[in-house]
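Students often ask why inverse folding is considered easier than folding. One informal answer: many sequences map to the same fold, so there is more than one right answer. In these notes we will look at a single instance of the problem. The structure comes first.
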């Protein structure tokens, strides 16, 4: 992050050109920001975040392929710049703040609303820059506090009791309590239910929101498991864990998710 008061580097991500151009025009109209890039999909957004290192990302949620939540999963919550979601779907608001979004703007966005958010962004970035200079440990401490808040919010989320999976023209109703694990398979998620797999057209981030947080834990970008299906947890390299399930499957935790596993089982003791 720059050690001055601006201009702050901004990236705009939206698969709809009119919406992307509108946000880009708002960003470009303010001298506090420097528009460093525009992306029309999640894949290019992940690359741009790594290459351009923006200070703030105006991020759409519903996009083909990787959603806005998937972009955050791929980059890593702790590695993401400041995130402002810009979307037409207010149903995603709770999920947005669970991944530490700074703000949430609904389309169509009025210039006055953007101006209010822009002012808050500048204040936040300037504050964080000063904090970085004063104490390099401050961002880590803040991230740890947010992780604890995230864990608490997850415990409160009930999720769906049942999921509907379409198979050959028929609807299969699956009780979430019977799901042992879910894993990414191409554009689908494979649900393992008492040994019988079912393919569901859903993103992993979307499924995570729908599953009861009291029963399920996400271990990495590609796998969510039912805590009742876990047989043991073994230490692994660099602070990660090897999670052994009752069917013998071993799943390694990802860096972004290992804190959730520690929190979950610390709470269960």
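Output (designed amino acids):
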């Amino acid at each position: 992050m720059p050690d001055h008061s601006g201009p702050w580097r901004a990236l705009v991500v939206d698969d709809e050109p009119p919406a992307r151009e509108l946000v880009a025009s708002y960003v470009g109209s303010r001298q506090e920001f420097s528009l460093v890039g525009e992306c029309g999909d999640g894949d290019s957004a992940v690359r741009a975040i790594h290459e351009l290192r923006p200070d703030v990302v105006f991020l759409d949620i519903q996009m083909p392929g990787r959603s806005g939540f998937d972009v955050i999963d791929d980059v890593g919550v702790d590695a993401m710049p400041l995130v402002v979601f810009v979307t037409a779907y207010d149903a995603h608001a709770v999920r947005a703040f669970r991944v530490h979004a700074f703000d949430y703007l609904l389309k169509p966005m009025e210039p006055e609303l953007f101006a209010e958010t822009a002012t808050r962004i500048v204040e936040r970035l300037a504050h964080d820059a000063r904090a970085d200079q004063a104490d390099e440990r401050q961002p880590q401490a803040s991230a740890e506090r947010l992780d604890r808040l995230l864990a608490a919010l997850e415990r409160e989320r009930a999720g769906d009791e049942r999921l509907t999976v379409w198979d050959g023209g028929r609807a299969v109703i699956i009780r979430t309590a019977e799901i042992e694990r879910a894993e990414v398979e191409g554009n689908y998620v494979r649900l393992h239910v008492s040994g019988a797999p079912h393919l569901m057209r859903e993103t992993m981030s979307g499924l995570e929101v729908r599953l009861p947080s009291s029963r399920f834990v996400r271990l990495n970008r590609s796998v969510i498991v039912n805590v009742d299906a876990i047989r043991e947890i073994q230490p692994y390299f660099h602070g990660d864990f090897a999670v052994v399930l009752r069917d013998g499957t071993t799943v390694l935790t990802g860096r972004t998710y290992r804190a959730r596993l520690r929190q979950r089982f610390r709470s269960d003791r």
